[in-house]
Amino acid sequence: MKIGITVPNDYTFCKQTQETFNHLYFECLITSRQWAKMCKWLGYTRKIGDWECELKWISTIAKSRKGLNGITCCIFAMMVAVIWRERNSSRFEQKRYDEQQVCREMVQHVHVRG
């Protein structure tokens, strides 16, 4: 939905393609590496797929009552929100995406709130 704001189509993180939903969240080297780091931290070894694949995976995880699965769902939701926040900071405030800072923020959030 457009609300009268013109935003360039170029992708702000890797600057190698136009911004699409799948590229922003899962195809970009930077964000897919971020997903892989968080999965590894949680103990999952898996290849990151597209939105449909990841949504199917997290939906299966969410149906289980294991403690780690609740944390995994929280991390998934935080990743989506943080990537969008960082995308906006990069695009509108010319801030650089800092993978390490994002990881620290998410791990700290889980430890403090978990």
Describe the structure.
With 114 residues, the chain is mainly α. It has one domain (33-113). It is 66% helix and 0% strand. It has five helices and no strands. The chain has helices at 21-27, 29-42, 51-62, 67-93, 99-113. α1 (21-27) packs across α2 and α2 packs antiparallel against α4 (67-93). It is globular. The N and C termini lie far apart (35 Å). The mean pLDDT is 85.
Indicate the topology:
Elements: H1 21-27, H2 29-42, H3 51-62, H4 67-93, H5 99-113
Tertiary shape: globular
Number of strands: 0
**How many independent structural domains?**
1
Fraction in beta strands: under 5%
Rg over CA atoms, rounded to whole Å, is 15 Å
- Model regions low in confidence, pLDDT < 50 over at least 5 residues: none
Give a short summary of the structure.
The protein is mainly α and 114 residues long. 66% of the residues lie in helices and 0% in strands. It has 5 helices and no strands.
Quickly list its features.
114 residues; mainly alpha; 5 helices; 66% helix; globular; Reverse transcriptase zinc-binding domain-containing protein; membrane; transmembrane; transmembrane helix
